[in-house]
Amino acid sequence: MRLILAILLPWLLFFTIGRPISGVICLLLQITVIGWVPAAIWAAYALSQWNTDRKIRDSKGV
Q: 13, 16, 30, 60: which could form a disulfide with 39 (CB 3.0–4.6 Å)?
């Protein structure tokens, strides 16, 4: 579900993973049609990093 959100509304994804400042920057980037593609790529990359960090945190039992 979050991957679909990363493609359609990249700025909103950052708010769901707890990175509101990045969400505002991404919204400014997404306002332009040309900036939509880099914003979506950035959001997908941030989502993969967030998933990795969560798996590491869960494996340590924190």
A: 30
Angle at 37 between CA 43 and CA 23, to 5 degrees: 35
Whether residue 40 is contained in a domain is answered as: no
Does any domain span residue 46? no
pLDDT digits (tens, 9 = 90+) for 24-46: 999 998 888 788 889 999 999 99
Residue 15, judged by CB atoms within 10 A of its CB (0-12, 13-18, 19+), counts as: middle
- Name the nearest CA neighbour of 42 among 3, 5, 6: 6
Give residue 62's pLDDT.
61
